Amino acid sequence: METILTVNHLTKKFGYLTAVKDLSFTIEKGNVYGILGPNGSGKSTTLGIILNVVNRTSGDFSWFDGTTSTHDALKKVGAIIERPNFYPYMNAIQNLRLVCKIKDVPETKIQEKLELVGLWDRRNSKFRTYSLGMKQRLAIASALLNDPEILILDEPTNGLDPQGIHQIREIIKIIAGQGTTILLASHLLDEVEKVCSHVIILRKGENLYTGPVDSMLASHGFFELRTANMDQLQELLEKNASFGKVENFNGTITAYLKEEMDAESLNKTLFERGIVLSHIVKRKESLEEQFLTLTNNN
Amino acid sequence: MLRLLQIEFIKLWNNRASKVLIISYFVLLTSIALIAAIKFDIGPVQFHLADQGIFNFPYIWHFNTFVTALFKLFLAIVIVSMMSNEYSNKTIKQNLIDGLSKKEFILSKVLTVISFALISTIFVFVVSMILGLVYSDYNEVSIIFSDMEFLPAFFLKLVGFFSFCLFLGILVKRSAFALGFLILWTILEQVVFGLLGWKVMSWESAKALKRFFPLESMSNLIKEPFTRLSAVQNIGEQIGENMKFDYHVYWYEFLIVIVWTAIFIYLSYVLLKKRDL
Predict the structure, then answer these.
(1) Which of A56, B40, B58, B256 could share a disulfide with B146, CB 3.0–4.6 Å?
(2) How many CB atoms lie within 10 A of CB A281?
């Protein structure tokens, strides 16, 4: 697989505070990555370092095959971090022309990208007259001008109203559908769950997990069960070696699996022991539950 | 290089305030020709400034470069704000993310400064040439093209001053404060000179040292031209004052300003490189 970004033992200290601690990960072409972490976990700092605006304390990173300088590599990257920053006195076209000059690409894509984000009608309005949602969409258009190899988005829906959030997510889905690699930093878990295939989880600047969303926890899921004789069921499950924790909460027993087991065989086993279930559901933890488990337990 | 200038041009020319200031600056440069129109006609006293020899070659090179350099403050405002606005709009961050290197960023500003200085110099050359050809008493080619060192001195004076403005813009990050700092610095140089001469050393050594101060060294490149006027010289002779000052531009004066310019540009780069945005 083609590597887009390699980060090796990256560390960033702000005085006494270590914002990023010995962070390593790689980004492969074609995947949609989410960087997850609570506020202050070092997401923005990490992005700032790989985007050449924050100086690293130690460690290194390399773009693509590592032969191009960072600023040349960034010409093949589209990135938006935090708030959209443009020249307030210039209109959309003028701002995008400037970006074309910086990225050294022809100005032919401006119309296409403005239409993609739905700003073509407002192309002659000055940037300062835009709403936050429009500013954010202009930022996406600007990041796409060079048809980037990778699109980096830092909290793209922060501060937007529900309609704005929806618009941005639709745009991200379209871009992801075109096969562009995306790196999305967010603390909104449902956002990441909806669009990302891989996650990088940070806490206090440390990498807790990198990999596909599905295999985040070595977990086999859990059962939610109900029956007439709850005590007997609980006792039986606790004796079974396949189950770990068994909880009885609000008339429903939740039993966590230690090894793979399907609902059918559990139902059969219990029926043979004389327990008739009125409710059986097998579930995997949601991203939120997995995330909280990871960030709390470590 | 052209690309960097184009980038800076888009930023400056779409900003109405900068555009107005740049245009007014060049209009003012041309308006020096209006001095020719100063004419007093009060009965027996007739005074026409253009007839007093201020437009004589080669004196005109000295006079015009000195007077027009006073207008540089207009461009100073443009330059300080083009630097500090990048910080207040956070566009510097976006520029870097979009793939401009920190070196290119500084270089684009420096190239703009050099272009401003170069265009100003050409402007002053053309205006002075026309004024001189119209009003000068001497029109021999050898006289017209003598004392031309005031033009490179003018160019360097502007580049040096604007580099200082760039540096202040990066250092202070707020245009109003940076301009305030510029004024403060001007006063500070005089205060330090005063203190040195008064307490630390003799006035002669203080004067010698003063020539190495950044702003002083820039203004020292083109010394005041008024005492060179024959009318003023005549008055000086009558009251018995020695008015034989040295007006020439020396190579070491060039060198001092070049060194300061290099220091300011380098410091701007170091500041930008070290800072997290």
Answers:
(1) B58
(2) 12
The whole-angstrom separation of Cα A161 and Cα A122 is 20
Report how far Cα A72 is from the mean position of its chain's Cα atoms: 26
Do B245 and B227 contact (CB within 8 A), yes or no? Answer: yes
**From the CB of residue B112, how many other CB atoms can be counted at a distance below 10 Å?**
22
Pairwise CA distance, residues A265 & A288, whole Å: 28
Is beta strand A150-154 parallel, antiparallel or unpaired with respect to A77-80?
parallel
* In a shared domain, residues A35 and A148: yes
- The answer as to whether A140 is a domain residue is yes
Q: Considering A212, A231, A262, which residue would you say is the last residue of a domain?
A: A212
Residues A9 and A81 occupy one common structural domain: yes
- Round to whole Å and give the CA distance between B71 and B27: 10
CA distance B147 to B108: 33
Q: Give the ipTM.
A: 0.84
CATH number (domain holding residue A19):
3.40.50.300
pLDDT at B114: 95
Residues 6+ apart with CB under 8 A from B262: none
Residues of chain A with pLDDT > 70, as a percent, come to: 97
**Mutation target vs B (from A47, A102, A124, A125; most B CBs, 10 A cutoff):** A102
Query: Chain A: which residues have CB within 8 Å of chain B?
Result: 14, 48, 51-55, 69-75, 77, 79, 81, 83, 85-90, 94, 97-99, 101-104, 142
Nearest residue, CB atoms, A74 vs list B3, B89, B97: B97
Q: For residue B95, is pLDDT > 70?
A: yes
| pLDDT tens digits along B44-57 | 766 676 677 778 88
H or E element in which residue A93 lies: helix A92-103
Give residue A265's domain range: 222-297
With bands split at pLDDT 50, 70 and 90, how would you rate the model's confidence at A297?
Answer: low
Domain boundary among A212, A243, A274: A212
Task: Say if residues B254 and B156 touch (Cβ distance below 8 Å).
Answer: yes
DSSP-derived 3-state class of residue A4: strand
Instruction: Flag if A55 and B274 touch (Cβ within 8 Å).
Output: yes
Per the domain annotation, does A217 fall within a domain?
no
